[in-house]
Amino acid sequence: MSLREFVEEMEEKGEVTHVKAQVSPSYEVSSVMKSFDGGPLLIFDSVKGYRTKVVANVCGTRERICSALGVTPENLYKRLIDAWRSPTPAKVVKEGPVEEVVEKADLSKIPILRHFEKDAAPYITSGIVSARSPDGKAENVSIHRLMVVDKNRLAIRLVPRHLFKLWSMAKEEGKDLDVAISIGLHPALLLAATSVLPFGVSEFSIANVLLKGGLKLVKCENVNAYAPTDAEIVLEGTVSTEKEILEGPLVDITGTYDIQRNQPTVEITSMMHRKDYIYQALLPSGTEHKLLMGLPHETM
Question: Is 252 a catalytic residue?
Fold first, then answer.
């Protein structure tokens, strides 16, 4: 199931609120998100400067997460544990909906949000980053905050966990690390990306179990990485092993401003997306983020 299919399902259940007034991606969208924190799934129908709709609060309640997985709240952890114990590789296919448009990277075309007044820049907070080791034997899929630097560069908050290990392996070989950043995903993929797994076990294999074998992946056009065929947007790029930039501040999951650090830059070379893609936003200090990260997880 894709994000848009899940949104349609929530529409039928009356769990969606449409924001029809025009709002700016700078502060205004996040302000509305904060007002409805822990409430209905939100669809912003008119975002100033963009034709793209923004969806938010997709995983904003525990009940909505359970609905996405087709389980009762009492069986949520059992469902996750069963998936962690029996990872099953997703099917790789030749093409998918996300490849409807393949074009040169231009982050200014995407309504990436600036959340709070003292945030350093707009941030992608709902994207999952997938990467493989240089020998292709290990794959990691995890959520990281991504600060917009310019039209084709991001700064990634890279903590010393599995993606950092892949980055270090690439650095040892004198290479940058190929990555795919997928945005606009079914909740099962966001949950899987927060799973605690042994190094080398792909979180895509957990998402595939949660989706009852329905996850399909496509190899990216220009980097050695894989992405879900049903993603709304996939940014293809490389995490530099030499270039760094000052990242932050950003109001994080604690509700306070995190400190600034020098972090690796991500050079975005190209982007794939649906013709009528929707942008998925996640308030970094909101309930939705806390629900995802409150489960056993690989943190941001």
Answer: yes
